[in-house]
Specification:
globular; single chain; Na+/H+ antiporter like fold; mainly alpha; about 0% strand
């Protein structure tokens, strides 16, 4: 119960702190200062703190477990499923191209990084966190190779964004795969991980998660949410009802609930109940899609974690 309270405290506290910084913006000078601060925080976490965490997690995960191979493919299948459902609803609702593109982006993106990592670690420790990272190992390639091109189809602009060049030159992606390789290599060679690593990650993961959530809270804008009740309800169903049914169903069919001590299956259950990812807003802004719709779905699905997290915890534990 204490870990659930900790995770909820990080989520709620981080969002509140982010909003405080947003409300503190009084003029262009303070906006520029706060924007720069949030960007700096994100960069420090992504480029310096996260690699330390990932190295330690990959160092101890059980790489002999053949079930690990299935994780990235379950993830991609779930993202494609969300994409298809979003497009189906847009067709039924007769959305215009900009709304369809924005809704598609929301269905295609899940916030596994900030919230998935936090919750799997809080509930399951480092092994759960490692499973979370492996689950989303193809997430960035999926965004650049699939979500961005499809999003561009719904745009009114024809500007090329060089997405494939971005895929192979993105610093964060390069660091991620390099860290994963080193961690697995140390694991394979049976190099003993230093004793300080476990208590170090006990602090790094919740602290870094708090600052990432605060950065998300800083970007939230609530003024237009009331305009899209149907879309928000459908996106909630996609993220918190239909996608969990798919992921848990596939996991049961593959017999993943029988591997090890059950940590892998529990991690998959947790990762099936996650909100719209912030990265959905990137193609929405790049291609000039419907920002208010995308922002509203992202905000409400994120805030819904306050209710969803306790339910998932009580079911699993």
């Amino acid at each position: 119960m204490g870990r659930m309270i900790l995770s909820l405290g990080i989520i709620v506290g981080g969002l509140i702190v982010g909003q405080i910084f947003h409300l503190a913006v009084k003029n262009e000078r303070t906006r520029t200062r706060n924007d720069r601060l949030m960007t700096t925080i994100r960069n420090i976490i992504v480029f310096y703190v996260t690699p330390i965490i990932l190295l330690g997690a990959f160092w101890i995960v059980d790489i002999r477990n053949p079930a690990l191979i299935s994780l990235p493919f379950i993830c991609i299948l779930s993202l494609l499923f969300g994409s298809a459902l979003a497009l189906l609803y847009s067709k039924i609702a007769k959305h215009d191209k900009l709304k369809t593109g924005a809704f598609f982006c929301c269905g295609s993106a899940t916030n596994i990084g900030a919230f998935g990592g936090l919750l799997t670690f809080a509930f399951l420790g480092e092994p759960g966190y490692a499973f979370c990272v492996l689950f989303f190992v193809l997430g960035a390639p999926f965004m650049y190779a699939f979500v961005f091109p499809v999003s561009g189809y719904f745009s009114r602009t024809t500007a090329k964004q060089g997405i494939f060049k971005k895929l192979i030159t993105d610093k964060a992606i390069i660091i991620f795969f390099a860290t994963m390789f080193v961690g697995f290599l140390l694991n394979f060679l049976s190099v003993k991980r230093p004793a300080f690593y476990a208590p170090l990650n006990e602090y790094l993961i919740p602290i870094s998660s708090f600052f990432l959530v605060a950065a998300l809270g800083y970007t939230m804008r609530f003024s237009k949410i009331r305009r899209y009740p149907k879309e928000i309800a459908v996106m909630f169903a996609i993220k918190y009802v239909l996608t969990p049914i798919l992921i848990i169903g596939i996991s049961l069919l593959l017999g993943l609930q029988g591997y090890g001590d059950g940590t892998l299956f529990k991690a998959l259950v947790i990762m099936s109940f996650l909100p719209v990812g912030f990265n959905a807003l990137i193609p929405i802004n790049i291609y000039g899609l419907h920002r208010d719709l995308g922002n509203s779905c992202w905000i409400v699905s994120t805030l819904s974690l306050i209710i969803v997290v306790p339910v998932v915890y009580l079911v699993l534990f």
